[in-house]
Design brief:
The structure holds two protein chains of two kinds. Chain A is of the alpha+beta class. Chain A has helices spanning 2-25, 30-55, 62-67, 74-80, 85-106, 111-134, 158-171, 173-187, 192-223, 234-259, 263-285, 292-297, 300-323, 338-371, 386-402, 404-409, 417-441, 446-470, 483-508, 612-637; strands at 510-517, 521-524, 527-538, 543-553, 556-560, 563-567, 572-576, 578-582, 585-595, 598-610. Classes of the chains: A alpha+beta, B mainly alpha.
Chain lengths: 661, 139
């Protein structure tokens, strides 16, 4: 019964979403607001029924039979509800409608909200139609199996159980940014007020996306067993493109909101970020990524997504082309100013996104050209990976970051750089020294030195800027700095920490594989690893081969236990690495395979990942900074908390109010 | 006696994965191993794979570097055998140049356009906007 109830609720949501879109785009008012809340509630309940089916192991539901198993721990039964295509599409719809419901509850009642709810209703309608008619999670089996097929064991992990919800909060959150952009274009109102109302949604989506991507990286680091946290894999790039555009958007929105500038570009980014999220979903879900051939054999999923991308993106761009000429350009400013700095930020981040797009789709296009015999099939294979992005994107972002502390200190309209550079001189000195130290310690790798210099410059420069803002008031004033300043500073410091961590980790990590028989030892960088042999251990739904390894370092000895797990239901093995945290980084031990023709000899992969926590910690700070900015805005909106309004410029110069049409 | 032979054999096995004595050469070999794709794995470089073929490929990389091949020659060796697919570094010749140059051309092109427009807009006497709220992004 429960699956049918879920199915029915999803159909009810389809109906309310349709009504929501029609009424939102026409009459507006209370009706679309109530309908948006109803759509959200129906879908949350529908998701709940699916989770209940998974928890109760109702194998008569095809999706549960395929993706769950009686031996699976309870939390992964719950996560199993979205750890597959159909369930994750339902999650997509839930979050999309959830944003609509949140907007209905929290946004001020006016035409912008009505139209935004209308557009969001359309997007929800399209997603639901795809869910119900092309990938329903509620299908029953006439002949239910006695037990299920189990979840992909790689996904039986806390980080990856939470990864999809956050990633979708980000991806799908861009849908509401898109909806307000479309609503603003329909109403002919792309101005400071519009930007002010988009920003909380853009911040929510982008910060969530940051967390989602970071969780994926953490999971890759310890679950895949090779110690990499980012490999420029097409799946990763698919989430990185909307992140880059989202980062550009949260910055350009500041210019639009505070100065009324860059409005047309900001709308364009708002549309683009959701289009890239859709494109990313297409790349991941259509199978086009593993092989163009796989896509060609079952193109339904891919074509539907592509059609959705075409319709949503095309309609929004048409709206944009119609309204863009009338969007005001905002007041004049000198190229050297905060406006100028934020334009520079947008230039680099959007070119970066274009670069990632090119690097991601080119191999697929080349393969496809070979498939249709435009180029000879034998030469139609190409890989674009780490070396390409490290030599193109990384230096580009590093150059951009050189400007960051200056940009943070620059006033609006016109900046005089010489005094800023003067009080930043100590920060420059610290950064140069740090870069030189890294160069000397790291074997004179030029990228290592430059990366550490840039990261240190950002962290110290931002710290100096905070100090300057405190002024003469002393330490007590630090706590009274506005929350918006804290949000910005914490996110930027996070960027600096991430850059230092990523550069040092990439440039100086060491890894080696040792074939070891029981009783043998391996030595690496002052650490001794004595392999005592393996023993079998039984888990709830897997059999483990667990290695006992005695680690000796600096007189202390401890045991670590890298594992290989075999999941009989899914017939898959996973690696469970043993990680020993130290101040300078992780010592990382993975148990490999036995060696052919040499029974009893195991490959032990030992790696040192310096400053790896800086990579994840920096990413977390970026997200935290984003959420602090969000909270700052929500507090400010409530006049009881902060009486000041921000719309009035202290200089008395009024920025033109950008109402078009 | 048998045990001694076995251990000698194992040590030899270990030696095949041992780093090259020359630290500079070993570093080059390690970099190359990160750039070459393990041909039986899914999107994984040979440096990180535990597959037997990756072990063999690592051995070949070290042997080639040891005998004095340049990085380009080692890459070419694998590309000749497995196709361009094996190298995560796209070729830097022919149409590959376009791939490498595109980001920088785009940056220069768009940047030039934006910069040109900003400069042409002319210099009115603009003054910095004072900010009294600590100058945050919202000031």
């Amino acid at each position: 019964m429960i699956a049918e109830l879920g199915h029915l609720l999803a159909f009810l949501a389809l109906a309310t979403a349709a009504a929501q879109s029609v009424l939102g785009l026409t009459t507006g008012g209370e009706a679309p607001r109530r309908l948006a809340v109803a759509t959200g509630m129906f879908l949350v309940l529908s998701m709940l029924t699916l989770v209940i089916s998974f928890v109760r192991l109702d194998f008569s539901v095809a999706l549960v039979a395929k993706n769950s198993h009686s031996l699976k721990p309870i939390i992964y039964r719950i996560a199993g509800a979205w750890g597959n295509h159909e369930g994750s599409m339902l999650l997509w719809c839930v979050i999309m409608a959830g944003y609509g419901a949140a907007a209905a509850l929290f946004m001020r009642n006016d035409r912008l909200r009505d139209r935004a709810l209308g557009v969001q209703g359309l997007l929800t309608l399209g997603s639901l139609a795809y869910l119900l008619f092309a990938s329903s999670p509620f299908t029953r089996l006439a002949d239910p199996p006695l037990d299920g097929g189990g979840l992909n064991p790689l996904l039986q992990d806390p980080a990856v159980a939470l990864h999809p919800p956050f990633l979708y909060m980000g991806y799908v959150g861009m849908s509401f940014v898109f909806s307000i952009a479309a609503a603003g274009l329909i109403n002919g109102q792309i101005d400071r007020e519009w930007a002010k109302r988009v920003r909380p949604w853009a911040l929510t989506a982008w910060s969530s996306l940051t967390i989602g991507i970071a969780l994926g990286a953490i999971w890759a680091y310890y679950e895949l067993g090779w110690g990499g946290w980012w490999f420029w894999d097409p799946v990763e790039n698919a989430s990185f493109m909307p992140w880059l555009v989202g980062a550009a958007l949260v910055h350009s929105l500041i210019v639009t909101e505070k100065r009324g500038g860059m409005a047309a570009w900001t709308v364009f980014l708002a549309v683009l970020s959701f289009c890239l999220a859709l494109l990313g979903t297409f790349l991941v879900r259509s199978g086009v990524m593993t092989s163009v051939h796989a896509f060609a054999t079952d193109p339904t999923r891919g074509l539907v997504l592509l059609a959705g991308l075409g319709v949503a993106g095309g309609a929004a761009l048409a709206l944009f082309a119609w309204r863009a000429p009338k969007i005001p350009t905002g007041p004049e400013f000198d190229p050297v100013s905060r406006e100028g700095a934020l334009i520079l930020n947008n230039l680099f981040l959007s070119v970066g996104a274009a670069l990632v797009l090119l690097g991601t789709v080119t191999p697929m296009v080349v393969q496809w050209l070979g498939e249709i015999k435009v180029i000879p099939p034998e030469s139609a294979s190409l890989s674009i990976g780490e070396p390409y992005f490290q030599l193109t994107l990384a230096p580009m972002i590093a150059v951009l970051l050189l400007f960051l502390p200056l940009a943070q200190a620059a006033p609006w309209r016109k900046a005089d750089l010489s005094p800023i550079l003067k009080w930043l001189t100590p920060a420059i000195a610290v950064a140069v020294v740090a870069g030189l130290v890294a160069l000397a310690l790291g074997g004179w790798g030029i990228w290592l030195g430059f990366g550490v210099l840039v990261g240190t410059w950002v962290v110290v420069g931002v710290g100096f800027d905070l100090w300057r803002r405190v002024g003469d008031g002393g330490f007590g004033r630090v706590l009274r700095l506005p929350l918006t300043v804290w949000g910005m500073a914490i996110a930027h410091i996070g960027v600096g920490i991430f850059v230092i961590g990523a550069t040092v980790e990439t440039a100086t990590r060491t890894e080696r594989t040792f074939p070891l028989a029981a009783g043998q030892s391996a030595e690496m960088a002052g650490w001794t690893f004595e392999f005592l042999g393996v023993r079998p251990v039984e888990g709830p739904n897997y059999y483990s081969t667990l290695a006992d390894v005695r680690v000796t370092h600096g007189g202390t000895t401890e045991m670590i236990y890298p594992e290989k797990r075999f999941y009989p239901v899914a017939d898959t093995s996973t690696t469970e690495v043993a990680i020993r945290k130290t101040l300078g980084g992780d010592v990382y031990v993975a148990l490999g395979d036995t060696i052919r023709d040499q029974p009893g000899v195991w490959r032990l992969r030992i790696a040192h990942h310096p400053l790896i926590d800086w990579v994840f910690g920096g990413s977390a700070l970026i997200a935290v900074g984003g959420f602090i900015s969000l909270v700052a805005r929500m507090r400010r909106r409530n006049p009881a908390v902060a009486p000041e309004t921000t719309a009035v410029e202290p200089s008395g110069e009024k920025a033109p109010v950008g109402v078009v049409a | 006696m048998k045990a001694a032979i076995l251990i000698a054999f194992l040590l030899q096995g270990a030696a095949s994965e041992a780093p090259l004595p020359d630290a500079g050469k070993e570093a080059r070999a390690q970099t190359l191993m990160r750039e070459l794709r393990c041909v039986v794995c899914e999107n994984e470089p040979i440096s990180q794979s535990t597959a037997d073929i990756a072990v063999d490929m690592r051995r070949v990389v070290r042997a080639q570097i040891d005998k004095g091949s340049s990085d380009t020659e080692v890459r070419q060796y694998f590309v000749d055998r497995y196709g361009q697919f094996v190298s995560f570094r796209p070729p830097m010749d022919g149409w590959g140049i376009a791939l490498w140059a595109f980001p920088f051309l785009l940056l220069a092109g768009v940047g030039g356009l934006v910069g040109f427009r900003a400069l042409r807009a002319g210099k009115r006497d603009l003054t910095p906007l004072p900010d009294d709220r600590g100058g945050g992004p919202d000031a």
